[in-house]
Amino acid sequence: MSMLRTILRDRRFHRLAGGMLVLAAGILLLAWRMGVDGVMLKSWWHQTEAFLAGRPVLLFAALVILPGLPVPTSALLFLAGTVWRDRPVIACFICLLAITLNLTWTYWLAARPGRTLVEKLIINGSLRIPELPLGNHLKLLLVLRLTPGLPLFIQNYLLGFLRVPFGLYLGISISCTGLIACGVVLSGAGVADGNLKPVMVGVGLIVLGWVAVQWMKSRIR
Predict the structure, then answer these.
(1) CA 140, 146, 149, 155 torsion-angle sign
(2) How many Å apart are CA 127 and CA 164, to the nearest integer?
(3) Residue 55 phi/psi, 5° resolution?
(4) Pseudo-torsion of CA 72, 188, 203, 176, nearest 10°?
(5) First and final CA of the chain: distance in angstroms?
């Protein structure tokens, strides 16, 4: 845990986080200067929805790949709910499968080629990648998963890079995100279909997931 505190206090980490915020602000400013407004965004959303409606494999691939990049996972899940609104329960299972595959490939990308590359770069220096004690794996997992602010894909790469046991990593990750993910999918399906029942169930799952996260945080404390 001391290593995590060291990373969070490092000036280079602060510069990276600041740079990402500046980049996001720049993108928003550019969009505003180009005249992008709510009507245009709504039109783009409907066009994307219509395009993916007949291409389920492409949407599934996007759900597997894009959350490993700086792309909001919640937006993709909401889009999946609107596209697959006629089968919301199946959509939840498909999205959970996609999230599982995303958690898997991001972990192993960081744990194998990513870590090997870093080790080769620092092999001649005095810096060494520390091995986490077994008792710290669960603590690190819960701290990262239950602390808001750090993007999910960065968490995945960091946990894979530190080689947290894969079974523990996958189980905790699905437990922390599964309910909320299904809630977002059902909310999207209900909104797109004009049906209040899926929206209420979806919001209920999101609230339940949030309460579960808060309970787990209180148990950690």
Answers:
(1) positive
(2) 20
(3) -130, 65
(4) -40
(5) 14
Q: Residue 199's closest CA among 59, 85, 48, 93?
A: 85
Angle at 42 between CA 202 and CA 70, to 5 degrees: 70
DSSP string, 67-123: GGSSS-HHHHHHHHHHHTTTSHHHHHHHHHHHHHHHHHHHHHHIIIIIHHHHHHHTT
Nearest to 66 by CA among 47, 85, 79, 82: 79
Residue in the block written with tokens 């960065």: 154
- pLDDT tens for residues 85-144? 989 999 999 999 999 999 999 999 999 998 888 777 766 655 666 666 666 788 888 888
Which value, to the nearest 10 degrees, does the dihedral of the CA atoms of residues 13, 17, 20, 24 take? 180
